[in-house]
Amino acid sequence: MFFQRIHHIALICSDYERSKNFYVHILGLPIIQETYRAERNSYKLDLAVGDTYQIELFSFPNPPKRVNNPEAQGLRHLAFAVPDLEACIQHLTQHQVVCEPIRIDSLTNKRFTFFADPDGLPLELYEE
């Protein structure tokens, strides 16, 4: 199996300050890093969940309600850390699973791709 562990859980919120307050002050999740991306008019708030897990809280201007788009409001996607992105894509392709073109994370320069589960839930492979 290619999956090593869950890499992160990404959420897109409808009201950044309200969600930030909830996750940080009500749930008590420590802030790892907060980034404002001016070109996207968007915040990315990295929150620690214990020593192993991380939630990425995103804001986007007027996010659409959940459809099947990883940029829609709500649970964004589930990401799996993998050692070899091409091998994983090849494995999925052999099983008739379509992957999006490989992207580069502008903050970490790591490579990743998205695909969907049978119900359309966006899943990500994130190369470490």
Automatic annotation (TrEMBL):
<dbReference type="InterPro" id="IPR037523">
    <property type="entry name" value="VOC_core"/>
</dbReference>
<feature type="domain" description="VOC">
    <location>
        <begin position="5"/>
        <end position="128"/>
    </location>
</feature>
<keyword id="KW-0479">Metal-binding</keyword>
<dbReference type="InterPro" id="IPR037478">
    <property type="entry name" value="YwkD-like_dom"/>
</dbReference>
<dbReference type="InterPro" id="IPR004360">
    <property type="entry name" value="Glyas_Fos-R_dOase_dom"/>
</dbReference>
<dbReference type="InterPro" id="IPR029068">
    <property type="entry name" value="Glyas_Bleomycin-R_OHBP_Dase"/>
</dbReference>
<dbReference type="Pfam" id="PF00903">
    <property type="entry name" value="Glyoxalase"/>
</dbReference>
<protein>
    <submittedName>
        <fullName>VOC family protein</fullName>
    </submittedName>
</protein>
<dbReference type="GO" id="GO:0046872">
    <property type="term" value="F:metal ion binding"/>
</dbReference>
<dbReference type="InterPro" id="IPR051332">
    <property type="entry name" value="Fosfomycin_Res_Enzymes"/>
</dbReference>
